[in-house]
Amino acid sequence: MDVFSRTFLPATAEAGLPMATVTRHMHVMRRCVEPDDGAVLVTRCTRPERPLGREYLLVLTYRRLVVTQETRLLRQMRLHLNTELRHLSNVVWHPDQRLGAVEFAATAIDGVRERFLIKVGHPKHVWHLDALLSHIFKPRTLASQRTVATEPPRLVSPLGAY
User: Fold this and answer.
1) What residue ranges in the chain does DSSP mark as E strands?
2) 52 in the Ramachandran plot: left (φ > 0), alpha (ψ -120 to 50) or beta?
3) Most buried by CB count within 10 Å: which residue of 20, 64, 75, 149?
4) Side-by-side strand order, sheet with 64-70
5) Residue 98 — φ and ψ, nearest 5°?
6) How confident is the model at residue 41, as a pLDDT?
7) In terms of pTM, does the model score above 0.85?
8) pLDDT greater than 50 at residue 153
9) Which CATH fold would you assign to the domain 3-148?
């Protein structure tokens, strides 16, 4: 069993997804995600601008974000978004404990702003989801700040100024 399978199946169980849904989406995910990339989050989500619209399945790994949707009539899988995390910009999420949801937004490499509403069952799960997103998206900014902070300051010699 590869890393993706070992992490994808427990993540779907944690999300409470039925095995039939997981099986239908699995072949699309296999084409998008490398076998050595571990799944961090698997969840259902909707688009906030279309509250009565279709449901999507969001899979977040350490390297990729993949979002699929299922057609209503024939139950065919359609790939909505497949991108590497390094190609995402302006990634933000807003946890709302009152609604029991997290709104996640990111700009893809083609400039399209993608927004998803992830509903969770319990208010404590909102903070768990917030911690998962912070784990994936925050270290990159902290690492870049550390490299800037560890560079020695460039000082002009007072003798060389004359």
Assistant:
1) 39-45, 56-61, 64-70, 77-84, 89-96, 101-107, 113-119
2) alpha
3) 64
4) 39-45, 56-61, 64-70, 77-84
5) -60, -45
6) 92
7) no
8) no
9) PH-domain like (2.30.29)
Q: How far apart are CA 115 and CA 158, in angstroms?
A: 53
Distance CA(97)–CA(62), nearest Å, equals 25
Which residues partner with 144 through β-bridges? none
Helix, strand, coil fractions of the chain, as percent rounded to 5: 35, 35, 30
Could you give the CA distance from residue 127 to residue 27 in angstroms, rounded to a whole number? Answer: 30
Q: Which band of pLDDT confidence, cut at 50, 70 and 90, is reported for residue 62? A: very high
Structure tokens at 101: 């949801």
User: 37 near 4, Cβ under 8 Å?
Assistant: yes
**Ranges of each domain in the chain:** 3-148
- H/E run at residue 144: helix 123-150
- The answer on pLDDT for 87 being more than 50 is yes
| Phi, psi for residue 52 in degrees, rounded to 5 | -100, 10
| Residue at token pair 């095995």 | 19
Tokens describing residue 77? 């899988």
